[in-house]
TrEMBL record:
Ranges where the Adenylate kinase active site lid domain occurs: 127-162
Keyword list, A-Z: ATP-binding, Cytoplasm, Kinase, Metal-binding, Nucleotide biosynthesis, Nucleotide-binding, Transferase, Zinc
EC category: transferase
UniProt cross-references to NCBIfam families, sorted A to Z: adk, PRK00279.1-1, PRK00279.1-2, PRK00279.1-3, PRK14527.1
The species this protein was found in: Vallitalea guaymasensis
NMP as annotated region, ranges: 30-59
Binding site for AMP: 31, 36, 57-59, 85-88, 92, 160, 171
Molecular function in Gene Ontology: AMP kinase activity; ATP binding; zinc ion binding
Subcellular location per the Swiss-Prot or TrEMBL entry: Cytoplasm
Biological classification of the source: Bacteria, Bacillati, Bacillota, Clostridia, Lachnospirales
Descriptive protein name: Adenylate kinase
HAMAP family according to UniProt: Adenylate_kinase_Adk
Amino acid sequence: MRLIMLGAPGAGKGTQAKRVAAKYNIPHISTGDIFRDNIKNKTDLGIKAKEYMDKGLLVPDELVVDIVADRLLQEDCKEGFILDGFPRTIPQAESLDKALMSMETKINYAINIHVPDENIVRRMSGRRACLNCGATYHIKYNPPKKEDICDNCTRELILRDDDKEETVLKRLEIYHKQTSPLIEYYGEKDILITVDGTVDIDDVTKSIVEILGA
Ligand code: AP5
Ligand code: ZN
């Protein structure tokens, strides 16, 4: 199964993508996680990406499309994958279509998690992330077993640099301008699924799995 996860920042793409990846045994590919790994390891890509991410802006298309195209060529993507945070612009979607065409395959579904802007800022201030293993939590809706400690790897959880309120508002603005046109793009291809992302995390997963099938 080849899937794309769409949605505003904080809509729950990462949370749901990890669950869907585990259920269908496909790799979860998050461009945000790839950038954060590069920032942590102080690579050239990380240094460039951080400049944009800290301002709530998108990293330029040319820094991301080849990374994803190369990743999709790896062996573990043969039977499927779930893309989280990519594509984020129409040019990225077009480059993905091209890469998939050359692999003689295509996306089965684009899953759009819908959450109104009002809910987003509230959610982001409660998010805690593990920079070591990429796990995400919410202090109220999805708390770790031990306060501020990752369940998986016992490292300390942090509030992401880009989760400050003013940066979240900027990310939302950019989402509406540059990313939300993808809803129409995949709608026209007849592969768009929209789910309500305001209900409990388990219920969002249920509605996705109901559509994708067991
Ligand atoms: P990225 O990491 O992709 O950030 P994002 O899209 O802004 O999404 P988030 O990770 O913030 O949120 P999410 O939707 O995954 O929500 P989550 O599951 O964590 O990208 C970061 C930056 O990298 C971008 O701003 C950009 O600069 C750059 N970038 C990345 N990809 C790029 C690309 N392709 N092109 C250019 N630039 C790119 O959930 C949020 C919180 O809510 C959590 O605390 C969670 O526990 C909680 N939660 C989740 N679901 C629910 C629910 N149903 N009810 C209550 N709480 C919930
Ligand atoms: Zn961890």
